[in-house]
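Model it.
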Amino acid sequence: MTETRPVSQVTRGEFRGQAGEYFGIWIVNILLTIVTLGIYSAWAKVRRNRYFYGNSFIDNHSFDYHARGLQILIGRAIVFIFFVVVQIVSVFYPLVGIVLPFVVLLALPWLLSRGLRFSARVTSYRNIRFDFKGTPWGAFVSVILGGLVAFFSLGLLAPLASRWLYRYVFNNLRYGDRSFATDPRIGKLYRAWVPAIIVTLIGAAIAVGLGVMIYAASGAMDDAASKEGIALRGIAMVYGTLIPFLIVYTIAAVLYRVGVRNVVMNATLLDGRHRLFSDMGRLRYLWIVVSNLLVTVLTLGLMRPWAAVREQRYVVGHSGMIIDGDIGDVLASIEASGSAVTAEYLDMEGFDFGF
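Modeled.
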């Protein structure tokens, strides 16, 4: 008699937070941050993350956030003091101000890799911590070099840069002693890129047309012979072109981000067996983002907690994992092997530098 293999089980995420609950946390965070001139913002971040992590469930178990406010405050203070000292020194030695961007560029990969490690190690699920093993060199190639490639190719190589970035993140991510791995296909990333680039090109054409119309309309009201009139028309044309383009570019960026997220997560495995998944709808998520922004602005920020909870519920609800085998047996095995690894992380998180 042959042994039957357990079928795969789809485990979808669930967010159980409520806007009313989060409003109390949010308003206290805002008030204490103002009263303490920003110092409390480090503890505010901890309270906010603990609420959102603690209400994000998979298989009836929530995530946990273990960072302490002092860790975040120290990391921010180090960065703040560094830039203040550099600014003071550059007053007396202007050459320092010229060298600073290159120093920051050299230090940024190390700060990014440390930040990702911190974020992973202060996150747990079922009492098992995550970890991140990426190196500064990997951060330089995937983030700095990838960003430059995307920028100087005018976005044509953005999918390639996205592939570098998410391979660096997921291929160095661990859950206990189990590894994540991803290798998203470049063709699928370009299919996610096409709608975004179409929206960008259409938006650019509309923005230029609006700019020309504004320039022509302002010319009817101003004396074309005067220098002031010509300058005002030029400024009106620039703003009339730039603002609509930035709005459309932001929309395209949201569409691209959601598409890439779906491709990358659907190509990611845990322990070589269990596949992550994401089925977020691009237009649906765009509507949530836009309507959240409008409601937040119209209510002078008071509906921001409702908007944050609404967005989180959608994102978590359209994410999850396809477990290969019986979910109870799989998670019991991970818990048994991951407890020893978790113990090593308790005093090794370091500081959050805010990058």
